[in-house]
Amino acid sequence: MIVFLLYVTIFAAAFGLYRVWERKRHHLHDFASLKTVTFGDESAVSPNRFASVISIIALFAIWGAFTGSVITPLHVPGPFVGDASFTYTARNAAGETDDATVHMRVYRVGEDVPLPELPVDQAGFAMDDALKIGAWRSVLARPSENDTGGEDDGYSVIAIDGQPIAAGGTVRFSDGEVTMTSKGSLSIKPDKGWQMEPIWLPAPEAVVSRLVEIANDGYKNVSLWNHLGSSLGRVIAGFVIGSIIGIPLGYAMGLSNWFRGWFDPIVEFMRPVPPLALIPLIIIWFGIGEQGKVILLFLAALWIMTISARAGVSGVRISKVHAAYSLGASKWQILRHVIVPNSLPEIFTGARVAMGVCWGTVVAAELVAADRGAGMMIVNASKFQLTDIVILGIILIGIIGYGIDILMRVAEKWLVPWKGRG
Amino acid sequence: MGNLVIDNLSMRFDLPNGGSVQALKNVSLELAKGELLAVLGPSGCGKTTLLNIVAGFLAPTDGKVTLNGKTVTGPGPERGMVFQQGALFEWMNVRRNISFGPDMAGRPAAETRPVVENLLRTVGLQDFGDKMIYELSGGMQQRVALARCLANDPDVILMDEPLGALDALTREKMQGLVLKLWKETGKTIILITHSVEEALLLGERLLVMAPRPGRIHKEYNLPFAEMGVGRDLRLVKKEREFAERREEILGMIWDMEEEIMGRQEETA
């Protein structure tokens, strides 16, 4: 919630500052800047690149601020680290009261620190205690253990730093809070601050250093490139086989009543079935090896490519076909020179969708069962709470998915420059 | 001896709701080689159906079309077609569009190239041979369509409102081009149009068709096409006879439209 409010604040502040700055700047006099109606004019709205850059910086700044990262100078308060103490008041069976101090040392998990030292001479029946606590953690202290008569009935802790406490009650001390359990133990929780614990959200630099580490040493005896490459390889294999079968099938459905009638029920039924729903069946039939994954991706791509090829054929203007017949072209020539090129834009659109779906499906399939792959990497890491690897994996999956889409768009522009200009 | 003979064509087809449409009824016509016939009529008079039957895209329910004594049963390269727009292949450049017919027939490129260059010059696109179709204006695209049709050297050219989508100025220029091509190549041309003026300017013969059922209403032999060859068409339009004919035919079509509207109101 705090993060969300902070994000909205940054958004509004950046927008406001940009507007002020823009007003002072020398104005451009291109056509769009002369439009008086921009609200509702779709063509007048283009992504503001300042906003894009600030948006990305803001995301990393918030990430850094809440993880105590080195990439941002400003951080939200972190967890309490260092020495602290509170005094408790105990009453023994005889009704006498005595004070003693709990000394605690809060340390960063992973560091090796000694217990705090206790004063040597202590008077009274209550004795000082020493404990160490990892940051973000809590411990259960039993002050009665070393107190004289602590095991007697009638002994109890009655106050913390002078504030009375009873079973179930909570009392604050200088750097945290103490809750008394029903059995009289004290649950000590030093302040956690607002920062995220690395096992929930590691700092950006931790993710980067994990990337370097995995890139050099691999993960689970498989190199990072092998993980990503095998995911990508499965996608390409499934997509290529799906296209090789799906595109001709789509053409046949677009050109023949019989094919259309025969395959329509199958295609229309299979199209809305999410490929993820096929994973269990594929595992039963083909196991968890490469074969099953390629078959799953083949099925994911097949229907999309079939439907786009069919749409490409249906979309050919009848006047083009008539013109070609009148110019003496044979059926085969019309397929080759008119129908195929005319359907390419649709097929490319389908291919972009299919690649996106395949990429999502392969990750999901690897989450379920795989010996290597991007999805396997993150699901395996999550079992060991290696959150940095999980986040790293998600970022890499995102980058590759985005890269695939950009490549497809470039290929489309290069191969079908006539798209949308018929 | 007529070159193109349209013999007692009728076209009737059933509708899915049980009714039927009589698109053409007993249409007969003979066209000698080199004649330019304009076909005019209100929408629904069957002029496009007639053209599609001659082109071989539709089979008539009665009657037949023969070209040089051979009955038409399907589309063929001896009957070239020029469509309104969007019938060019935008994945090919202008040259390859024009040479499409000869290429499909398997004629060697060396033989086709001079023909294509010649046609590019004829239609005034000599500098646009390497352009893609989508880089051209609408008028230029129709020039390419004309050239593509001529490259195949058909006996008859069928034009289905080829200038219908062009702006008025471009249209006038293109009308001049059609007349020029007609005179230079001596092709038989059937031109379908919505525009009375265009029909008068271009039609050496003019067929006015009436709807429901589609039939020939009246036929004219006109001097204006011959007059317009190589001349400013605006001068032709200033002729008194031209204006008289235009009024006459406009009135005729107006009456037909009125009649249709009246009939629709009765049934409604």
Q: Can you tell me about this structure?
A:
The complex is a heterodimer of chains A (422) and B (268). Chain A has 422 residues and is α+β, with helices and mostly antiparallel strands. Chain A has eleven helices and nine strands. Chain A has three domains: 2-65, no CATH class; 82-190, no CATH class; 206-415, Orthogonal Bundle (MetI-like fold). Chain A has helices spanning 2-24, 49-65, 204-217, 224-255, 257-270, 279-286, 290-314, 318-326, 331-368, 374-383, 387-415; strands at 82-91, 97-107, 129-134, 139-141, 156-160, 163-164, 170-173, 176-180, 186-190. The radius of gyration of chain A is 33 Å and the shape is elongated. The model of chain A has no long low-confidence stretch (mean pLDDT 89). The model of chain B has no long low-confidence stretch (mean pLDDT 87). Chain B is globular, with a radius of gyration of 19 Å. Chain B has a six-stranded mixed beta sheet, with helices on both faces. In chain B, strands 2-1-4-5 form a four-stranded antiparallel beta sheet, covered by helices on one side. The longest helix of chain B is centred in the C-terminal third of the chain and has 28 residues, at 240-267. Chain B has two domains: 4-78 and 156-267, Rossmann fold; 87-153, no CATH class. Chain B is α/β, with parallel strands linked by helices and 268 residues long. Chain B contains ten helices and ten strands. In chain B, α4 packs across α5 and α5 (138-151) runs parallel beside α6. Chain B starts with a strand and ends with a helix. The interface between A and B is medium-sized, with 23 and 30 residues.
